[in-house]
Amino acid sequence: MQDWDALRHVLAIAREGGLSGAARKLGVNHATVSRHLSRAEDVAGVRLFDRFPTGLVPTEAGKEAIRRAAAMEAEVHALDLAFAAADESGEGTLTVTVPPLVAASGLGEDIARYRAVFPRVDLRVLGTHG
To answer: Quick one: average pLDDT of 47-53?
Structure first.
């Protein structure tokens, strides 16, 4: 699957527990999230969530997509750190806010590498649930 936007919606559905919560989190409407989920499932050729009256539950394929989407998101955050580090002075303060799922996906290793390359940058990592 090469559609990061669809995967971003899948990740939001998983984190928020459903289409409506994902729509609120992403700042779009319910139909947009539903459309992205349908597209992701069509492209993958598998259902990513089972639909129940109580909400959506990830299938095994969905769990894999969610895990990999979280890893992709972590890489995007790492890229943002690299761009922020491009400041020619190589010093200053950089504050990064990350959700727990991203922090748990190897961010510590990225921070260690970042600190090794930019020891004069005061890196501050803040946790959030969103």
So the answer is: 94
Burial code of 22-40, b = ≥16 C-beta within 10 A, e = fewer? bbebbeeeeeebbebbeeb
| Token duo for residue 123 | 């890196």
Could you state, in order of their start, the residue ranges of all structural domains in the chain? 4-68, 73-127
Name the phi and psi angles at 23, rounded to 5: -60, -45
Is residue 72's pLDDT more than 60? yes
Task: Read off the pTM.
Answer: 0.65
DSSP state of 97: E
Q: What is the DSSP string of 19-75?
A: HHHHHHHHTS-HHHHHHHHHHHHHHHTS-SEEEETTEEEE-HHHHHHHHHHHHHHHH
Mean of per-residue pLDDT scores for the chain: 85
Q: What is the pLDDT of residue 102?
A: 67
3-state secondary structure 6-17: HHHHHHHHHHHC
Architecture of domain 4-68: Orthogonal Bundle (1.10)
pLDDT in tens, 101-128: 666 667 777 788 878 877 888 888 877 6
